[in-house]
Amino acid sequence: MVNIYDILFFLVLFLIVFVVNYLSSIRKIxxxxxxxxxxxxxxxxxxxxxxxxxxxxxxxxxxxLINAFIISFVTTFITxxxxxxxxxxxxxxxLLFGLIYSLYEIYGRYLVKKYGVERRKK
Length: 122
Prior knowledge:
elongated, 4 helices, 0% strand, 77% helix
């Protein structure tokens, strides 16, 4: 059963992870441009996005929100479970990888519609 402390734990952890992730990414953009942000480069290569159309600050904001949600949700979920530590870790890893893959795949498909490379018809 989820109580108010679990929700509060989720929100506090979400805010901490979001702020740290976002500020560190913004600092990297200002210092080194977008070449140093690995996840942004991965999304560009994986989904064949047009680099000239991309607005890195918007994408970094969404990436930070996704990362904060994934970490906060998995941490809160496995701490709610009343099972042994080993099972919590195993469930956490499965949940972590599933959320990473699914949320970034959904976001990548959205980015393709918005910033995708236009294909020319022959």
